[in-house]
Design goal:
Elements: E1 2-6, E2 9-14, E3 17-21, H1 31-34, H2 45-65, E4 69-71, E5 80-82, E6 88-90, E7 97-99, E8 105-107, H3 120-125, E9 127-129, H4 130-146, H5 162-171, H6 191-204, H7 215-223
Antiparallel strand pairs: 1-2, 2-3, 4-7, 5-6, 8-9
Length: 269
């Protein structure tokens, strides 16, 4: 067995087994807070904004600033760890892939990842790139703002997920309606900043990968009061086509699959 110290993280290599030992994260993962009715009350808007920005900077490092370009491919709330100061740390690189300097995208015949965070081109065609991570980041940002999972069912909405619900509210000029109620009313947080974050999130989940911003552009828009482009239609809106008496989570109400690709829901290790 070989033990090495790499930038403060221990790496264990034994035959075919490779293991990374992370620093201890006392606050567990992001999903432990934002999807819990009680614990998410500990996250005010300022802390949520810092987490949104921190994750964006982390993904930017993977895409641009690290020695090798890394596509995470499984960015989600349970793979974002929180240290004692609630600083986000991206974890679980089991599905990550490294790109060459001039490589733009890659293809796989077996897409794997977590339903609700996977970009359409990856889930349907096996194509992945930095824009796949951008899509996952957009879903994550909307979840942090709303305190709801993307696959949450919205009563009274024609959409089955958070992306579609946020898009409908955005078109109606009521985007702030998705904000987590535990944050209070609009007087309790900077509405302009929250709206900008919602708009950036919707830009990241646009259906066409070419329309999505890069993570460098995301970080710039988050850190500066600039004119943010208007988003186009997002992917995976999942319009409801089931009867009101049917369980919305049942497979019978889901749209028919267009191919034989299997999407595995993976949990963080």
């Amino acid at each position: 067995m070989t033990l090495k110290k790499i930038r403060g993280v221990t790496c264990s290599i034994h035959k075919e087994e490779r293991m990374l030992i992370y620093e201890y994260m006392p606050n567990k993962s992001l999903d432990f807070f934002i999807f819990d009715e009680i614990k998410r009350q500990l996250l005010d808007w300022r802390k949520r904004f810092e987490i949104i920005v921190g994750i964006a900077r982390g993904v930017l490092y993977l895409h641009q600033d690290s020695r090798l370009k890394i596509i995470h491919r499984d960015l989600k709330a349970s793979n974002v760890l929180l240290d004692a100061a609630m600083t986000p740390k991206i974890s679980d690189f089991g599905l990550a892939r490294m790109f060459g300097d001039d490589q733009i995208e890659a293809n796989t015949n077996r897409p794997v990842g977590t339903y609700g965070y996977m970009s359409p081109e990856y889930a349907m065609e096996g194509l992945y790139s930095t824009k796949s991570d951008v899509f996952s980041y957009g879903v994550l940002a909307l979840e942090i703002i709303s305190g709801k999972r993307n696959n949450h069912f919205y009563v009274g909405s024609p959409c089955l997920n958070l992306i579609g619900h946020a898009w409908d509210l955005w078109k109606e000029g009521k985007a702030l309606d998705i904000v987590d109620s535990s944050l209070g009313d609009e007087a309790s947080y900077p509405a302009f900043e929250v709206l900008r974050c919602i708009q950036i999130g919707l830009l990241c989940v646009q259906e066409q990968a070419a329309d999505r911003p890069t993570m460098l552009e995301v970080v710039f828009m988050l850190g500066n009061e600039v004119n943010v482009p208007s988003p186009n239609k997002p992917a995976f809106i999942n319009r409801r086509i089931i009867d009101s008496g049917q369980d919305p989570s049942s497979s019978a109400g889901a749209p028919a699959s267009q191919n034989d690709i299997t999407i595995s829901e993976l949990e963080a290790r």
